[in-house]
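Weekly sync, protein design subgroup
Attendees: M.S., D.O., the rotation student, P.L. (late)

Item 1: inverse folding check
M.S. brought a backbone from last month's batch and wanted to see whether the design step gives back something sensible before we order anything. D.O. pointed out we never logged the input encoding, so this time it goes straight into the notes. Structure tokens as presented (335 positions):
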């Protein structure tokens, strides 16, 4: 079935113009309206009823879909979204995809019946692995407001809020080098996600640049099939000269710190460790984990403000934007 986007492409006009012409808007000239209706009739165009419902109603409600509601980072972003939305007179409906593509699709389908005015989404792991983006493409084609945060898809043309992952990894490498570290490793449990890949790639580039390609990156991908602490222990035993570690996520940094201490390493004298995490995670070890704070609160606020801007400018051809939230390196004790 043909979409408004495809009609617009065939007629060489904007999607917004097609939408207005189909609704016989006085803003559009008679000739253009006739051309749009003629082509729509030829291709037997049928409007997406869910999208029509969503456009016609103002519910003062936002649909928020996250991949793991128990994850500390997503929980903090959710809290921030709820607080900011409430301040602006909006409610939110939260759905947990549990890293499932089908649950993500089901959540969008259920909420697209007119229950919400727009969506804020962090993409599930399965969606990224399968590269099935059809459910998001449908939203974009029907001009339903969509904001992606943290886990975003480059191929989906929507507004996005992210942290500067590349800069954060480089910042961590530079901080370790300033402490005199020469064998810097990278550990990750999110190596199959876009954010994990970006953080890892930036780490590799920073190592090559700072050491003039004389040192090889040392990388551990922690898999769920085996005990994570055992994997970290084996990695440290097989690379005894490691004196610095960067963790890509909010769990592996604390795990690495605790394993290193159990092996007799003094932290930070023997090994310095930095993790992408927050203050709460940092406090789970002694000494506290030094962190790259992802500013979950600011990210949540930014997604709401960006969605409000999009809702107020539905009729405009406002270009999609990507807002970058800076990270902050906090030396809590392990650097």
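Designed sequence read out in the meeting:
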């Amino acid at each position: 079935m043909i979409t408004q986007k495809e009609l617009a492409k065939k007629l060489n006009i904007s999607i917004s113009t097609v939408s207005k012409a189909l609704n016989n808007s006085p803003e559009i000239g008679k000739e253009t309206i006739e051309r749009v209706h003629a082509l729509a009739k030829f291709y037997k165009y049928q409007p997406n009823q869910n999208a029509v419902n969503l456009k016609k109603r103002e519910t003062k409600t936002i649909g928020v879909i996250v991949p793991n509601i128990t994850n500390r980072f997503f929980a903090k972003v959710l809290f921030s979204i709820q607080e900011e939305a409430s301040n602006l007179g909006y409610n939110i409906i939260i759905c947990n995809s549990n890293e499932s593509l089908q649950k993500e699709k089901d959540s969008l389908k259920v909420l697209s019946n007119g229950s919400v005015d727009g969506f804020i989404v962090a993409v599930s792991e399965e969606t990224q692995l399968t590269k099935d983006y059809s459910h998001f493409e449908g939203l974009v084609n029907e001009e339903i407001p969509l904001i992606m945060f943290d886990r975003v898809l480059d191929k989906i043309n929507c507004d996005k809020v992210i942290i500067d992952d590349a800069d954060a990894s480089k910042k961590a490498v530079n901080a370790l080098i300033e402490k005199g570290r020469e064998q810097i490793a990278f550990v990750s449990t999110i190596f199959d996600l876009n954010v994990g890949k970006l953080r890892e790639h930036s780490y590799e580039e920073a190592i090559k640049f700072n050491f003039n390609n004389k040192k090889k990156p040392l990388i551990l991908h922690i898999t769920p099939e085996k005990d994570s602490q055992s994997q970290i222990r084996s990695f440290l035993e097989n690379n005894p000269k490691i004196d610095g570690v960067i963790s890509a996520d909010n769990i592996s940094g604390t795990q690495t710190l605790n394993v290193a201490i159990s092996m007799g390493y003094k932290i930070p004298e023997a090994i310095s460790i930095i993790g992408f995490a927050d203050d709460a995670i940092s406090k789970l070890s002694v000494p506290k984990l030094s962190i790259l704070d992802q500013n979950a609160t600011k990210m949540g606020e930014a997604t709401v403000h960006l969605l409000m801007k999009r809702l107020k400018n539905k009729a405009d051809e406002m270009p999609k934007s990507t807002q970058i939230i800076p990270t902050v390196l906090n030396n809590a004790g392990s650097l």
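Discussion: Residues 4-47 form one domain. The mean pLDDT is 92.
Action: P.L. to compare against the previous round before Friday.
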